[in-house]
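User: ok so my PI wants both of these folded by tonight, can you help

Assistant: No problem, let's get them done. Here's the first:
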Amino acid sequence: MRHTELLAFEEKLRGRKVFVTGHTGFTGSWACAWLLDIGADVCGFSLAPETSPSLWHELRLDGRMRSILGDICDRQALEQAMSAYCPDVVLHLAAQPLVRKSYREPFDTFNTNVMGTLNVLEASRHVPGLRAVVCVTTDKVYENREWPWPYRENDPLGGKDPYSASKSAAEMVIQSYQYAFRTSDDRPLPVATARGGNIIGGGDWSEDRLIPDFVRAVTQGSSLTLRYPDATRPWQHVLALVQGYMMLAARLIDSPDTTARSWNLGPADGRALTVRAVLESLAETWSRPDLEYLDNPAKEARLLALDSTLARDDLGWHPAWDVEQTIERTAAWYREFHTGKQDATTITFGQIVEWRQLLLKRNKG
């Protein structure tokens, strides 16, 4: 499904060797699908998928790229894999990404998100000719003051729950490597961080996430349990974030000095919808499950929004779909998949094509 007309950032990555940690996960699978579609040479390093079904297996990407099953906490295995592949670009997606799980498993959360990131950076700085490292963190790295204003990249970092704290700590590790270390050919380590919002899209079957929980309730005829129905989040389609990661990698290749920093990647219009509002949109698009409310849920931030002015103005990052289109396309993905009308590969690559066509049309306009 190779495209003859590529966007500028795609052209920069075509033919490049891209090492993706967490490639078997939800976002990793979307990222690998897009990278392969534009002609990148992709190698993944990750644990086996944790869910069944999993997007990685449904897309059957293992036949199109190198896939290494391993743990980023295993420093030796990670260094051997990266050294053997010798990538141009590293896209670090591997993480323990679930807030409620971080309360149950705090050690594993900190170990994966902090020490795992440290291992990725250590391995990266010894790769000859490395051109870019994009480390994905989260919008939750900020010291959340529950205020209505969006957070900017220079706001203080913090984290009260183990997940947020681990990602904030990872940002500090990355910042140290940006300033303290150089590549094997004596250049500043070209590493940027991407702070994204609540990622949604087809093919996510994780626990304790609104969209997968909604899908399970609809397809299984069960109740949907809500924790914080009035909490606000910057909901975004996974393709918006993958586009941002790819644009950062391409910019690092050309302009590492001005790009090796942190970047917010929030909704284009700055809106942060409540959990209840997203649920209502999903119900209108597909079906309405019975609702239950969780007593004494684990503490999570209620108000959260990002200021992405820097990414829009300096990087030129403009997602193709707004939040309503994002919710509609997400519901359509699951509806088509679970009714058997189309397989995951057809739906996923179809949405990538639609997304790209909108970006190309916008660029020409």
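One down. Here's the second:
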Amino acid sequence: MLECMLGSSIALKVLFFAGAFVVTGDFAATLFTILYQKIIYRNIRSKFNASYAPMCSIIVPCKGIPKNFGNNLRGFLQLEYSNYEVIYVTESAKDSAVPEIRKILTEDKRAKFTVAGLAESCAQKNYNLLAALKLASGSSEVFVFADSDIKPAKEWLKEIVLPLQNNKVTVTTGFRWLTSTAGSVGELCHSYINIFIYTCFCAACYFGGVGLWGGSMAIRRKDFEELAVAEKWASAAVDDMSLSAVAFKNRRKAMVVPNCVTVSDDLIETMSGATSWFERQIMYLKAYQKGLWIFTLSLVTTAALLLCLLPAAVLGAFLTNNTNMFWTLGGGVSLFFIAGHTLVAMLYPLLGKMPYFGRFLLIQPVLRMTHVIAYLKTWFTHTITWAGIKYQLSSNGDVKKLERPQPQEVVENAVLPVEGIS
């Protein structure tokens, strides 16, 4: 059967084994993530002292009003942890998020707020984080960073801080699990990409110390200062991957905390939007882990060829009215590759809930192709578009130039406490 699929073409044999390598890698990463989430990390966690509870400053940058915004922000003040503060930050005092934040400030004295102003030489998010850190309590031992589009579980802070009692662990990270509510191709595409990144992060972080998610990460204050993270962020295009690169360069250990994987139904609804989002994530990989980006790009190119072989083989067989042409043109090799990835996807429900899973499996080739498109597009650009701002990057990931979509209000004070907001 295998000989029939491959025929006599050396090129098809090479593609077959290259595709088998890609599928095997994806399968291994997914299987490892399942084991890590269900067994390995539980064993690691059992060795920690559950009473560890250093003072924490949680930094939550906000822009606009994502789904469930008010509940998300209040979730950070409902944690089962006694010793922490929450600092919200926006780039502008006129951001639509500000009214909701102001309400929260009257509800809990642990909440703070600042306006950062406009970034000129780094990602706006980085600029916001650095502004917020200026309001952090002097007694804070741990800096925790989170996005406003998640609502953390009550034990989230305790869990993400817990591994930091081990001095060999410098930074911890959670992740996000996306559950589709409409079952659209765009939502399922976003969900697929998110799962793929999560499995890659778990494997890469455990074996190579690479990979952080800025939506949920924590680092000891002394390590943040010792590694000069603020200086790196002041010129970088993103927070998480630049911090990951700093930690990796200094041989510091990062740890994924499965207990801090936050479930969210705030998905991108269109396939083009999900593809563009993934393209931005890959651009960060290109900027801060170029060797890994080049290696991964070779795997994605293999996937692109194998996915394109199927329609080409079907068309060739139809036009020649010869079923053997399907195998000659590589249709069998392509089917084997698609079946392999479908098998990998069948493991995903072991990681979390998967609404519309039947439809998810059915359109696997389409989802994988958007993955390919996003990767290949990064070959031709050094520009990242994030929240409407275009960032032109240097070879080391520093921001060379940024362009805003329209003139913005200039905030005179770089850091404006809540009392000063008009």
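Residues 26-281+411-420 form a domain with the Spore Coat Polysaccharide Biosynthesis Protein SpsA; Chain A fold (CATH 3.90.550.10). Residues 408-422 have pLDDT under 50 and may be disordered. Good luck tonight!
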